[in-house]
Amino acid sequence: MSIKVKLNDYSQLIKFRLTFTVVLSSVFGYMIGSVGELNWTELGMLILGGFLVVSASNGLNQIVEKNYDILMIRTENRPLAQNRMSVLEAVIFCSITGILGIWMLGTYLNHHAAILGLGSLLSYAFLYTPLKRFTSFAVVVGAFPGAIPPLLGWVAATGQYSAVAGILFLFQFIWQFPHFWAIAWVLDDDYKKAGYRLLPFKQGRSKSTAMLIVLSSLLLIPLSFIPYFIGMSGIVSLVIITLSSIALTIMAIRLLKSLSIKDAKSLMFASIIYNPLVLIVLLLDKI
């Protein structure tokens, strides 16, 4: 096997693009929490340590789901599913990257960051991942490790928890419901081939499911006001984040009316933009 093919397999194993975006959200959290001049050494260790931990999480996810990935079009070409990589190789890789990443977070940042990294890895790989085949509640469970990155970044910068850290966590936690349910709506047929239940109701693409997507989007609107009222951000951030939350809710309402895959895709892409936009706006407001 050529080096290029092997590197591509490892890129798929760690879900490189997803890992990059997760680490980026922790970087935003760190920069929002930083006071004065940035500590570039700490930031570098956050990026590297975080990348290793998330890579391990995604790799462990594929180890657990190896026999189911081959059943879905979206995942059938993954290296473990196609036996281009052995389970033993993947386990060794994930063990090394996970342990090394957590060690870096604890050694170069603080023990809070290491604990959050470990909690995120374990809950994602060993709670959320196996639950996906048994209950749609897995999405709620998965939202906790999914919301940790910006919180971890803040704690890495400050060494403590605070109301601001909680707001960063809440934004990412609530945002995941319209985001992942929109993805599950689009990919529901593919998910069913592997026995995954990610939409909240057995009826699948139904009015009840769409209503939950609307309600979760609506929660982002009052949340948009909190950073301003606790002095975390200014009026410009308030306006931009609130308008973005309203826009996301409007797209969710369109899905409720149409129940179409087309509107679910539109909501999915809008949600992909929403989360980094909120973090960027909060960071720029601070600067």
Explain the overall architecture.
The chain folds into two domains: 1-161, UbiA prenyltransferase (Tetracycline Repressor, domain 2), CATH 1.10.357; 162-287. Helices cover 78% and strands 0% of the residues. The chain is built from twelve helices and no strands.
SSE blueprint and pairings:
Elements: H1 3-13, H2 16-33, H3 40-64, H4 66-69, H5 87-108, H6 111-131, H7 138-158, H8 163-186, H9 188-193, H10 207-229, H11 235-258, H12 261-286
Helix pairs in contact: 2-3, 2-7, 2-12, 3-5, 3-6, 3-7, 5-6, 6-7, 7-8, 8-10, 8-12, 10-11, 11-12
Give me the secondary-structure category.
mainly alpha
The ordered H/E elements are HHHHHHHHHHHH
> How many separate domains?
2
Work out the radius of gyration.
19 Å
If you consult CATH, what is the topology of the largest domain?
A: Tetracycline Repressor, domain 2
Shape: flat
Overall CATH class of the largest domain: Mainly Alpha
User: Quick check: average pLDDT?
Assistant: 95
Strand content: under 5%
Q: Helical amount among residues, as a percent range? A: over 70%
Distance between the termini: 48 Å
Within CATH, the superfamily of the largest domain carries the name UbiA prenyltransferase
Total count of strands: 0
Question: Biggest sheet: strands, sense, closure?
Answer: none
Q: Please name the CATH architecture of the largest domain.
A: Orthogonal Bundle
How many H/I helical runs? Answer: 12
Low-confidence stretches: none
